[in-house]
Amino acid sequence: MLTFLKLGGSLITDKRQESTFRPSVMNRLSTEIASALKENPDFKLIIGHGSGSFGHMVANKYNTINGVSSSTEWRGFAKVATIASELNYLVANSLKEADLPIWRIQPSASALAHDGKIIDMSIRSIEQAIIQNLIPLVYGDVSLDEVRGGTIISTETILSYLIQKLPIKRIILLGEVDGVFDQSGNVIPHITPSNFESYKSALKGSDGVDVTGGMLTKVSDMLHLVKRYDGLSIVICNGKTTGETQQVLSGEQSIGTLITTDNN
């Protein structure tokens, strides 16, 4: 089974302070991922991560997600790309130190979007990584855009493209909350298309600066995916809780919020 693991930007960085990495959190996550893979050597994994306080603050300053046209905006576009890659290096180095076979893959090197949605991106390196038991590492980045000139492509946007091309059957979204909360502050154990409306008003935007949307956007996007791709399951859970990442990667069913179709 091919799993896409997303490390949220709010988890691995402090989104309230510009370019602030959380090395202790990332090192623990790396260790837990490595432990889960040792338990199941045949496990196939793609890892993606958000840009957190590295990319989002610069992108917000230049309004990059809404388009790039002036020379100042194009310079901002380049700054976002550079800063996002700086965080990617820190994440990759941590994963490497846990002896994981990480291969950094830069989305902006080949991605082309149309009004914010990726319409083309090379996946040959990702496919080869999976075949050779390597772990491709992608991240929130910038992209040329046929309508906007340039834009931001979040990790979820990249995932939405990859799932069209690769047999991804499970998605794990690690953040800094225990799952999706209802109006009473309790974790919703299971969200499906039929019960989503009853929970929708409880979903609020994320803390700090987030140019790609908060929890409502994420849940809506994930529901769209499970309706489109048969057998897909998605878990939103807490990467801050020690041991939880390893448990959910190993198949623990009672962690976080599960998102599936009504039939799963």
Helix and strand arrangement:
Blueprint: E1 2-7, H1 9-12, H2 23-39, E2 44-49, H3 52-62, H4 71-97, E3 102-104, E4 112-114, E5 117-120, H5 124-131, E6 135-139, E7 141-145, E8 149-153, H6 155-165, E9 168-175, E10 190-191, H7 196-199, H8 215-228, E11 233-238, H9 244-249, E12 257-259
Parallel strand pairs: 1-2, 1-9, 2-6, 3-6, 4-7, 9-11, 10-12
Antiparallel strand pairs: 4-5, 7-8, 11-12
Question: Can you describe what's shown?
Answer:
The structure is a single chain. With 264 residues, the chain is of the alpha/beta class. It has one domain: Acetylglutamate kinase-like (Carbamate kinase, 3-Layer(aba) Sandwich), CATH 3.40.1160. Helix content is 39%, strand content 21%. It has helices spanning 9-12, 23-39, 52-62, 71-97, 124-131, 155-165, 196-199, 215-228, 244-249; strands at 2-7, 44-49, 102-104, 112-114, 117-120, 135-139, 141-145, 149-153, 168-175, 190-191, 233-238, 257-259. The chain has an 8-stranded mixed β-sheet with strand order 3-6-2-1-9-11-12-10, sandwiched between helices. Strands 5-4-7-8 form a 4-stranded mixed β-sheet. Strand 7 (141-145) and strand 8 (149-153) form a beta hairpin. The longest helix has 27 residues, at 71-97.
What can be said about this structure in brief?
The protein has 264 residues and is an alpha/beta fold. The protein contains nine helices and twelve strands.
In this structure, how is the largest beta sheet organized? Answer: 8 strands, mixed
Query: Taking Cα atoms only, what radius of gyration do you get, to the nearest Å?
Result: 17 Å
**CATH fold title:** Carbamate kinase
Q: Element order, helices and strands?
A: EHHEHHEEEHEEEHEEHHEHE
Mean pLDDT: 93
What portion of the residues fall into strands of 2 or more residues? 15-25%
Q: What is the helix fraction of residues, given as a range?
A: 25-40%
